Amino acid sequence: MRRIVTRFSKLLNAMLSRRAFLPAFAAAAPCAMAQPKRPNFVILHTDDQRFDTIRALGNGAIQTPAMDRLAARGVVFTQAATQGGLTGAICMPSRAQMLTGLNVFQAHRAIVDHPAKPDADVLTFPEHLRKSGYRTFHTGKWHLGTALHHRSFTHGANIFFGGMSDHLAMPVFDYDPEGRYPKQRQYIAKGFSSEVIANSAIEFLRQQQGDAPFVMYAAFTSPHDPRMAPRRFADLYDPEKIELPKNFMAQHPFDNGEMKVRDELLAPFPRTEAEVRRHIAAYFAMITEVDYQIGRVLEALERSPHAGNTFVFFAGDNGLAVGQHGLMGKQNLYEHSLRVPLMLSGPGIQKGKRNDSLCHLMDMAPTVCNLAGSPLKGAMDGQDLLQGAPRKSTISAYRNVQRGLRTKEWKLVVYNVDGRRTEQLFDLKRDPWELRSLASEPAQRKRVAALTAELARQLEAAGDTAGWVRQ
């Protein structure tokens, strides 16, 4: 008996060794213990959705039951933001940041500035997980070229290569395993864009009956304009009952370097209260519409055999002004345009948690790959949302005219427009609507100088070649 116990003890020690566990167990038992299933990932991505447009997060004027459920089921990263972009189409660099973990300057050089020939050494997280055995699926918007899409996905449906479209006439492609998408293969999807994308996501989930792990990326085109929500959603919001934001302005107080971009021409100058109310009502209706379709996808996941082994990420790509500070678009560095919703739920994720640490969309890529047990390698500024050290500050940029630094308490924005320098300093604790700049106050001179020096340092480290921030 002692000899048997001794042999069993030796075998148990071998099993506790990470390398020897499975071989030892297989030798000791009739059937070897199967490796734990690798987790699945569902990525739900909205277009132009601001951080404060979810009822569960404090906006009592909007209806978002599906997003509210996601907030209750997992962790909400309340300070998530994009770093902006060096082009008017902020969604391009924002999505490149999210998919790769690169900062805004790296993302432009690797992908955004030449989408037809993306850097071969830069991997998206779907591409990386594809190489490690994942089935990767995409439906909806893709604004980073066909080459990177082909590298990233093994499957797809109703793929929209572009930035925006009529939601009732979204031009799409069927997935081509060879990555060939000539114009003649494009056709108009039948139905409203969000419903088309949700249907594709639901069908993909229905087909996943085996054990192969998957990444499903559903990139909705809503609530991006044209804001044309179906009547049942539009009727929920009476423009006359919409409350104007505290930082509503008829016009921006100075030229920020991008006053006539397409987004800013969606409403006449100067902005009127009635016009902005109408835009907000239409914006909220689009968010409630896409929320409904997200709810359908979540219900399909819950009915599937994969619900208990799937992480769900929900994120926006950038925010939107819609009348705040006299602006309509996202080509600025105010909170309303940089900050986005970001949530994570799934196995082992604490429910109902709020994480107030500063974070970026680029943090999603390393987080997904770490959860998959396959860390994303290479130089990147993104860090694991669940394990990374809290950031003390974050930077942002828009074209070559705006640069910003944000801490938990303060924000500095520096403008360079036709050789004229303008600075803004906001006390975010006392002035979250960014109504009063303190940059010119004598008591804040040292703070402005210190934040400017830190902004210049971080920009240089991130690869910004502009160099005009440092005085």
Overall average residue pLDDT:
93
CATH architecture descriptor of the largest domain = 3-Layer(aba) Sandwich
Instruction: Name the helicity range.
Output: 25-40%
Number of strands: 15
Going by helix content, strand content and strand pairing, the class is alpha/beta
Number of continuous helical runs: 13
Q: Would you give the CATH topology of the largest domain? A: Alkaline Phosphatase, subunit A
| Main sheet properties | 8 strands, mixed
Q: Provide the domain count.
A: 2
Give the strand order of the largest sheet, numbering strands 1, 2, ... along the chain.
Answer: 5-4-8-1-9-10-2-11
End-to-end distance: 82 Å
Q: What characteristic shape results from the CA principal axes?
A: globular
Question: How would you describe this structure to a colleague?
Answer:
This protein has 471 residues and is an alpha/beta fold. The protein folds into two domains: 352 residues, Alkaline Phosphatase, subunit A (3-Layer(aba) Sandwich), CATH 3.40.720; 61 residues, Arylsulfatase, C-terminal domain (2-Layer Sandwich), CATH 3.30.1120.10. The protein is 31% helix and 18% strand. It has 13 helices and 15 strands. It has an eight-stranded mixed beta sheet, with helices on both faces. It has a five-stranded mixed beta sheet with strand order 3-12-13-14-15. Strand 4, helix 7 and strand 5 form a beta-alpha-beta unit. The N terminus is likely disordered.
How would you summarize this macromolecular structure in one to three sentences?
This protein has 13 helices and 15 strands.
